[in-house]
Fold these 3 entries.
Entry 1:
Amino acid sequence: MKKIKFKDLSDNDKLSANIKFLFEKDFKYNYQIIESEYKSEYTNDDQYSTITGYKVKSVNIIKLIEFISNKIEDKIILYSIDRAVRASNVTTAAFEVTIDQGYYGDELGSIKLISEQLLANLHGLLDKTNLDRIKYVLELEYGYLLPEIDRATKLDIRNGNPKAINIGQQDHYRKLNKQVIDAYKDYDLPRCICLSNKNGLRLIDGYHRLHSANNQKLDNIDVILLIE
């Protein structure tokens, strides 16, 4: 049987393969996603080494999301990966560090991702419709679905002016974290999720990302629209 090339897989199957690779990978020399540190010392005769303090000191969430999103093109799946990873609270504690024993003492072992929460959140994206993926990540983030979202039967990606979006919670909008807003400056996925009502588009999720778009004076952004 002819072997299927990775590029010819469906985006769902690419995501499945990327997840598998993610949790098999040794991140010891992946300096884009994690930064590690350790201290190496030798015995008085320089014949035997000991390694102490070997740990992951920082995680680049953006690079982690890019790794999981490798070769995937569907914008809804890409958006869902982004939200599922951010909802997983991946910290340095999500990585397991090992030290191996060699003839001349300690050697750097492996650095493996062991976050069961991330694994479960990503697996939850597989074999779903795009509508169910969006409902899934909203429930991951907020713990429940608004009735209007639960009733939605389809979705679409619309391009429009961010200033035309109705922001229901103005007080919340004014109190947003500036650092988080600035972090979304180069965000190239749909900026927010909206419902359509008699007043136009109603913002459901994506306050920071929408605020960032307005700060940048963007005339057009992609919006995920849920439709009953």
Note: The chain has nine helices and nine strands.
Entry 2:
Amino acid sequence: MPSKEFYLTLVAGHFFYKMDKGQGFIYLNRKILSWEWYDDINTCRLFIHCLLKANHTNAKWHGHNIERGEFITSISKLSEELNTSSQSIRTSLKKLKKTKELTSKSTNKFTAIKVVNYSDYQCQKISTNKQTQNEQQTTNKRLTTNNNDNNNNNDNIKNKQKDFEEFWQKYDSKKSKKTAFKAYEKALKSASHKEILEGLQRFVNTRNPDKTYWKHPATWLNQECWSDEYSQEQNQQEQKPDSFLNYLIRQEGL
């Protein structure tokens, strides 16, 4: 079993050894099940430990260049980390070096161990990690954009409803409000809310308090009456008796 410093998960047919405290993970293909040292517990465990310990980028340590796939350690340190004897570590290292899985350079102070072909083991991880990260960023961006669009749409709808209520309160002949709102939305494609209100104010200023001859608000909007010129003379003409047919047309908002 792995030591307490990492744990194992299986994703899409691959093992991922994850370090504690957000220290990342390594990629481990399931082909390791058929690896020649897989049934050698000490050797297999040491090799996986080396994959976990190896630097994933080039680095420097005490004036020494540490390449990607390499790390600084010692026999005693590995013995302590894996809770096994120094002799067991030496034996496993010898096996892994014989099959060219690892190389090592020792001094009187430390041992530098390098995983041969480290990129062959970990390049897939890097690609998977970058792809996952890019997909996550794309998803987050899309969600953010959609949320922003939804927020903007909600704000536009609220503002439009608020502006329509202002129009509705000023237009005294209050009939078919739902139809009038649709007509108002359509009218905004040709004029601004300010232009519509200014035209409505000119209309109201020349109207007689008697609302009998007022057009339905939807009709007034659909006919773009905000752009008409109004006068008292026009008002008086519109107040003259009209045919019953025209009266019915106005009442239906046609």
Note: The CA atoms of residues 74 and 108 lie 10 Å apart.
Entry 3:
Amino acid sequence: MKISRVTFSVVIFGILCASATAQESKSMHEPDPLLNQATAQASHEAEGLLQRALHLADLYNWPASRPHFTKAQELFNAVGDKRNALYARLGSIRAGADPAPITEQSYGLAQELATNPILQSDKELRMFCLIVKGDFDGEIDVPCNAARLDGSGSPRERTGEYEVAISRTRAIRFCRFL
């Protein structure tokens, strides 16, 4: 009778140990539900900040959108959302968070458009990047265009042929981007 009790105790002990090991293994592989909830909340907050920043950008109030873009970028990076982190980074660049010269920013965006796989596959994000780059390129051309608006320049430029040639060149460049 003692042998059967000992055997029974050993079997029960083995089952309990196996059960405890399985529980521990399961808890190590499953993420903490509170962590999932915090990540979802951070992602939701970041999405709200990005939408607010984009709304301000649509109103062409880039300086007011800058803190929203930068905070959204931090939150998206924290949760590992590369696409939206890039979206927020592009917005913060346009909002003036990067103090680099405009020509360098335009060149950097061109390189990003050519090499970043997210920008090559996501049409909405690529269009936003092109808009940001176009804003910078437009600011680069402003002094040249302003000098022509006051009537200076060659007669050919004053007749409007120059503007037609420039618009055709820009259209060709835009098509190359696509």
Note: The chain has two domains: 33-99, 101-178.
